[in-house]
Amino acid sequence: MRDHIFRSVELLIYVFDIESDEEGSDFAQYAEVLEALEQHSPDARVYVLVHKMDLVRDEVREEVFNERKESIMELARGQLRVSCFATSIWDETLYRAWSHIVHSLVPNTTKLESHLNEFCKKSNADEVVLFESTTFLVIATATCTPHSDAHRFEKISNITKQFKLSCRKAHAQFEGMVLQNSHITMIFSILSKNTTIMVVASHANVHEAATSANIAQLRQRMDLK
After folding, report:
1. What does DSSP say about strands 127-132 and 81-86: parallel, antiparallel, or unpaired?
2. Model-level pTM greater than 0.90?
3. Do you know which InterPro entries this protein is assigned to (predicted)?
4. From CA 211, how far away is CA 148, in angstroms rounded?
5. I want to staple 145 with a disulfide (CB 3.0 to 4.6 A). Which of 123, 126, 178, 194 is the partner?
6. What topology is assigned to 109-221 in CATH?
């Protein structure tokens, strides 16, 4: 049974409930999973989510997570590629963890990010972000102008998903949108059947039509349909 479940595993996600009353049992099961992976899929990537961290008091949250992370990483013994995240449904942490996981599943990310960096410079944009179209998790980014808000992707994702939901309620198909004020222009466009691109520009000489043409060229260059 173990051989059937754990053979040829590429990626495994393991979730610890920080409020669990059976910590010893949880770690024993985790150790068994790692042992099975080392035996049957030693190249697998393991992502551990220490979940419900919002239930831990703010003043000790980081300390509690670091202690739990140390125990989690110690069991891995450095033989497996293990990443650990503190998560909660009430803040950006779960979104960030899932974006990291999705990013790791995308093939040729280096080439993809190279295309986005070239596009960002060519379009005179501040930032270019590639989202997965359904979840709006971040796949790849290119930043030409640093931004101070570390949680901007989650905020943008939530707003856009709500807008797409409104479109569905109105029996309309989301194909893109443009947000603009006196300081910034944001252009959303479907890049492929599974991805949506966002282009952010603060330069006055950046025009929507030119950016849309650049997106079409990017789609052709990357052979996306």
Report:
1. unpaired
2. no
3. Gtr1_RagA, P-loop_NTPase
4. 24
5. 126
6. Beta-Lactamase (3.30.450)
Residues forming beta bridges with residue 143, ordered by sequence position: 127
Q: Which structure tokens are listed for 51? A: 């979940």
Which strands make up the sheet holding 45-51, listed edge to edge? 11-17, 45-51, 81-86
Show me where the domains of the chain are located.
Answer: 2-91, 109-221
Residue 93 burial (CB count, 10 A): 20
- 62 in helix, strand or coil? helix
Distance CA 110, CA 145 (A): 20
Mean pLDDT computed over every residue of the chain: 90
**Superfamily grouping for domain 2-91:** P-loop containing nucleotide triphosphate hydrolases (3.40.50.300)
